## 1
Amino acid sequence: MMGTEFEQQIVELRKQVTQLKEGTKDQLSMVVFSGDMDKVLAALIIATGAAAYDMKVKLFFTFWAISALRDRDKIVKGKKLIEKMFGMMLPKGASRLKLSKMNMGGMGTSMIKGIMKKNKVASLDEMLKTAGELGIEINICEMSMNLMGFRKEEMIDYPGLTVCGVATFLSDAQESKIQLFI
Amino acid sequence: MSTEELKDLKSNKIVDARGTACPGPLLAAKKAIGEIASSEIMEIYSSEEGTKNDIPKWCQKMNHEFLGIVEEDSYSRLFVKKA
């Protein structure tokens, strides 16, 4: 009788130890929500920096941030009117995103891009390419992608680009040392 | 290591990240460290002030040995010994 109780306790302890171990994976999970150029840039700098730290990096792109992953040259046919409208109103690709502040009808954004170039700060397009080379995982929230009338076919050619739901983010975040929302 | 000792050190790899901005030098270091063997020495050139704080921290995390910095006119040379 005592024996089985003891065994049960061991099983329970093992389970807890496994959970503890999983919780300390060297991994960064980030929700990229904002479609502002400056915020997406910050997200990608942190992500690539973490990859340089040999951390596994998982980005979950949702809502406005999905615009950053649109391919400027890809056209998807057969969209509904409202989807087409959204597609036209939202920025087509990372290079079309605007600053969160001081945009001034696009003037501020082009000014900052000029300064970025001068200071040799990588553009969003370049950062996305680097992120892909570093093996950073990008997941797109399917629900918000559908809300905005985007299709996976119009997204950039990013290695392993995946469409998923909140459960993917939660299971990634749960086992990550760092979780961020930008 | 003292500045004099560092100046005499023979690096196995030089990473010139001068002119690049954050996270350029860090990414360049990460890429280059994969190209040298354990105990070999990598030297990073950076014109960014922040790199001098970043690289020692990165070394600590990655278990590489940070050997020190040699200041040049418009840039710094950072020495790292691979774990």
Note: The radius of gyration of chain A is 20 Å.
## 2
Amino acid sequence: MYKFKAINVFVLQERASQFFKYIRQLVIVFSVFLLPLTSFANEALPVAEDPVLEKRLVELSENLRCLVCQNESLAGSRADFAIDLRREIREQMKADKSDEEIIDFLVARYGDFVLYNPPFKTTTILLWFGPLILFIGATTALIFYLRRRRTQIDDIPLSESQRLEAEALIRKINKE
Amino acid sequence: MIRFLLPLAIFIVLVVFLGIGLTLNPRQVPSPLIDKPAPVFQLNHLHDPDKIMMSKDNLGKVWMLNVWASWCVACRDEHPLLVQLAKTGIVPIYGLNYKDERDTALQWLRQYGDPYTVSIVDSDGKVGIDYGVYGVPETYIIDKQGIIRHKHIGPVTVKSLEDKILPLIRELQG
């Protein structure tokens, strides 16, 4: 037989107060974690100054490569170099320069490498058409291979001597 | 036979291409400014902020523009070599002090030696952007007509001096 443990009111109260203490501690810990977020929000304030311009800046710089950290775009990089260039682009945007003018400005200084979208010219023909050429080459090779295999599989009629030989073999096997 | 040779041939071609790729340095982005006029600038001297140097002041001579900063660790590697080169008097070296503090920059030159004919200050990095600077140190060779003839990215080494920079300077000085 199972004996129920008597739980008196005092124990319940004790547990409840412990529980609330625990919750309070949790809240404190989480608010400590959240603290840096509030300071981030403060730092990011200048963005709100001119949201239209900042949006244009992000759209443009997402297609530009940061030369220091080459796998990051100018928009996403936190390198000093990217910060400087973003500032430069921002100033040029404020001076009413078009996106093309700004891109030309950067390409004149850093070369095509700064563009994620390579321009179409003689030195980049292989880059643009290389995959297509590979695809066409591989497809034709595959077609030729399949055709050749089909003719190999096709029944080639046996000559008279081969037929007799085969029949002799079958008879021999049947006897055994 | 061809069944074995063909994959082998493809493999060898791949290895050759990958091998070439390994010898290239992706950090060395070719500058579009080679054989173009050096961007014009007008900057204050580091030692004497009242003086101004203009890029056209150097027309008529072959000169070297070395981009450096006291916060740049790799600059320390090449610096003794630049000091040595300056002593030979082969070519005047101008220092572009890039995004630096004046006091620490001067202290740095006192500590490691000053190879520069003149050091000029680019505190906000604007001239650096014009020259396509993206990693310090960088070194430019500019000819008598004010055309950029060579850009060296990263610290100057004995090998790069002997193989490329010094022969080019001699050729340009004619």
Note: Chain B has one domain: 34-173.
